[in-house]
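Anyone up for a design puzzle?
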């Protein structure tokens, strides 16, 4: 008879234990970050081209070396051409 009471107590404790083991809402669990990464492919398929005033090469604006002069922005194919332009136009 005592074993039945002990068994009931064990079942009761087990029931209580199982109730406590139910998943609780845990704080401090941030949602996953949005799917936006450092990649930003907003450039369209048509790239704006500018002509290098030093060597005459057409370069895409996104890859050109820029030089702000007065109120206009000049585009060069390379820093060398920009330096040539800054050094001064050739005589002739
Ligand atoms: Zn150039």
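Challenge accepted. My sequence:
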């Amino acid at each position: 008879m005592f074993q039945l009471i002990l068994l009931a107590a064990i079942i009761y404790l087990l029931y209580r234990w199982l109730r406590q083991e139910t998943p609780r809402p845990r704080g401090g669990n941030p949602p996953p970050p949005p799917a936006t990464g450092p990649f930003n492919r907003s450039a369209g398929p048509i790239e704006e081209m500018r002509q290098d005033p030093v060597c005459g090469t057409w370069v895409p604006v996104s890859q050109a070396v820029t030089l702000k002069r007065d109120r206009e922005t000049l585009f060069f194919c390379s820093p060398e051409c920009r330096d040539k332009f800054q050094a001064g136009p050739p005589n002739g």
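A detail worth pointing out: The domain at 48-92 is CATH 2.30.170 (Ribosomal Protein L24e; Chain: T;).
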